[in-house]
Amino acid sequence: MKFQPPKGTRDFLPEEMVRREYVIETIKRIFVAYGFDEIQTPVFEKWELLTKKCGEDIKQQIFEFEDKAGRKLGLRFDLTVGMARVIANNPQLPKPVKRYCIAPVWRYEEVTAGRKREFYQADIDIVGSKSMEAEAECIACAVDCLKALGFEDFKIYINNRKILDGILKFVSISEKKNLEIFRIIDKLEKIGKENVEKELEKIGIKKEKIKKLMKIISFKGKQEILERLEELKKIKIAEEGIKELKEIYKFSKFYGFSNFLFVNLSLARGLDYYTGPIFEIVAKAKKQVGSIAGGGRYDNLIELLGGRPTPATGISLGIERIIEIMKTERMLDLPRTKVKVFVANVNEKMKEKAVEVAQKLRKEGIPCQTDLMGRNLKKQLEFANSLGVPFCIIVGEKEVKENKFKLKNMKEKTEESLSLEEIIKILKPK
Amino acid sequence: MKFQPPKGTRDFLPEEMVRREYVIETIKRIFVAYGFDEIQTPVFEKWELLTKKCGEDIKQQIFEFEDKAGRKLGLRFDLTVGMARVIANNPQLPKPVKRYCIAPVWRYEEVTAGRKREFYQADIDIVGSKSMEAEAECIACAVDCLKALGFEDFKIYINNRKILDGILKFVSISEKKNLEIFRIIDKLEKIGKENVEKELEKIGIKKEKIKKLMKIISFKGKQEILERLEELKKIKIAEEGIKELKEIYKFSKFYGFSNFLFVNLSLARGLDYYTGPIFEIVAKAKKQVGSIAGGGRYDNLIELLGGRPTPATGISLGIERIIEIMKTERMLDLPRTKVKVFVANVNEKMKEKAVEVAQKLRKEGIPCQTDLMGRNLKKQLEFANSLGVPFCIIVGEKEVKENKFKLKNMKEKTEESLSLEEIIKILKPK
Lengths: 430, 430
Prior knowledge:
Two copies of one chain form a homodimer.
Chain A lengths: L13 H20 L3 E2 L5 E3 H4 L5 H4 L4 E3 L5 E4 L4 H10 L7 E10 L11 E10 L4 H17 L5 E7 H10 L7 H8 L2 H15 L4 H11 L2 E2 L8 H4 L2 H20 L5 E4 L12 E7 L9 E5 L3 H4 L7 E7 H10 L12 E5 L5 H13 L4 E3 L6 H11 L3 E5 L1 H6 L2 E5 L4 E5 L1 H8 L3
Parallel strand pairs in A: 1-5, 7-9, 13-14, 13-15
Antiparallel strand pairs in A: 2-4, 3-4, 5-6, 6-12, 7-10, 8-9, 10-11, 11-12, 15-16, 16-17
């Protein structure tokens, strides 16, 4: 009897892992260059912590369980809540804390081709700064990650929960329903205008208010659009939100991403903990997969988890969606294996010598394999080919004695006779 | 109200993560050099899969839960079972498959200072080869990992499930109880001789047999000890096991680890799926934490999970134990942060210029931070110091105009006036 991986999860074979690792390592390199340090938290947390401020939709998606002492736990649905707990528990950390984490999270969602229940997020957060410079830096860092991966064309949509609060006030909707409404309008792109309207009706919003609301949130465009929100500016909370977005625009020029920046008043983000600017990055691609990064400010979360009042903002890159686009756009032209060379022996007696050569290459950081199957030379080369190893070295008595080895280029089907030192020079990672 | 991480789990703050990452990256580099490719599997698996061949002790330690459709799942207790499932499901993969994985696993154990319920394993496996060369390569690779981390003195203990089978036959114990007995005698070092004898009595083994058994399994020593097992050699299965260990000795000379190799007949390993040679590495350290690596051959597991009959062997390094020893032995003298330089501004007006300088450094791969708190220069330098950032650059109008910046060495309290190009040369990672 065979076993499949649990529903919504996948296995990653070597060829796929080479691609995943390239994407993750590239993002990590940029995160570190931007001065973010790593903080890791457990994959599961107490149920009470997870559900403190996630909202009803996410709550329904948490994998919940009990440990053997009856403690109620859940697999984390994002990387923010655990980190916020760490900040709450460690007030000694100098502020701002600039933290990154690249790790899996779990949500029990409807499984589709693109959406799984186990997926990776790459998060950066700046904790302790109220300034919109923090937002600008997070977005700039995410943009540099995407550029480093080869993305050229994308849009950064921004909005502000404060503006949304202002809009609801403006159309005279009771504050109590704000979070519920945000979760509904955030689905606009996914489920369409009609369905959003239906859902709003369902929670008791009057038709005329819905109409007014839908009209305002359909605003989308460059910075100038903020000037057209005259009536909203009269509402204090909205005015604050508009001012914050203008500051993000100002700082975006320092970092050179202002051209990619668009206001989108229907953007709300699905999590309850956001309190200020929110943002999403959408890549232009043949196949649309939704946003590939998203985040926002959550100034109350750390206090809510028992910490001191601490402003915070962050952005999260979706690894799977990024990889999906890169695959369809052919941006991931990588070898199938990290093995650089197969050190073949001409016969059983030369095995020890082949291992000796391999060990020398390994010391130089050149990934290599030797035969472990007792295969003849022909079969060894066939195996190397089937694995996609780009080079082979052949080790025989004469070769060892003269320090001249055949280096076979498996793709171009050429070969050269070289000393081990010369071979190392060619194969050593730069 | 504050929340602690769930019992048996920990948070890793930046300073700790710098150390963890150094250990993990070093191990990964050696794994890759040895020609292992990465395979990743989900953190949870179907309950039936996990418990197929783990043994009763481990079964009791699995974190179990159901998904919302009532499927019984469990968090993985090791990285081998998921990988074996992948091999069973993907017969197209060319053999041998050389796979690595460095990831967390979970076991519900008694929590002590050194033992947690969430911990990392670093595994390599060679799948498809019957040859003891595979064992030798796995051990050699683990040894090179330890050497790269600075370990100089350690012992590699080997035994063979086949020899253990032979011993039980020799003392006339019914085969049915073999796995149960292995799990008990494996605890010898942990719980002591008396307790092992008690547990063996409890499962119905006669005292005289226990005495005989304990005498044989107390054998410990170099290869020569294998010659003293005259009586065991008459039992076919034991003879096979002895022959395999001799071959591992032979191949260990190719790789240069024969001096570290010792036979230990009480070594059994706690998992039911082992079928042949088993091994453990123990580091010599002031504070004994048990083995830091262990593994063995599991020739039946893949077939048991629905695959073709496929021989396999592997070794797993325990990240937490390795780090614990390295800390007490002061082998982890690393900076507290990866941030290399703090780019300070002399006043608010110079913020944009400071960001400009930082962006240039980041492009060169130099991790840096700028002020995000609106602090004055003194406070900025104090912050950099509190974080452990080794260098600061000061950006003022004059500095920008003349392209001469003060580079402050925060530890040695020295400073130099340098062009940005010179600074990059000094700080750029080699």
